[in-house]
Amino acid sequence: MKLIVAIIQPHKLEEVKNELTKNEIYRLTVSDVQGYGQQKGKTEVFRGHEYQVNLLRKVRLEIAVNDEFVKPTIDAILKSAKSGEGKIGDGKIFVLPVEEVIRIRNGERGGKAI
User: How many domains does the chain have?
Assistant: First the structure.
């Protein structure tokens, strides 16, 4: 079992969800997050005053999958989260091992609980 954590552009969320659904991956947790990376922020203008925004809004997806779903999940995210512009900021995917999963409702454990 693995936990796939993906940080993506907010406007790509629906596209990623649709691609995951096509690959029979239906369970995910979505969080709004802010981050600082190679982009180093951007300059914005508000009421005529320019200011620097260095924490950029992103979306964090957490998807727990059995081992046979790791590759399809990663492929779906890669396919749908790319901007196609070749610029930095499309995001990252992290794959973490999961030791145990327990379904609270009935105590089911392991791959069945996912």
Answer: 1
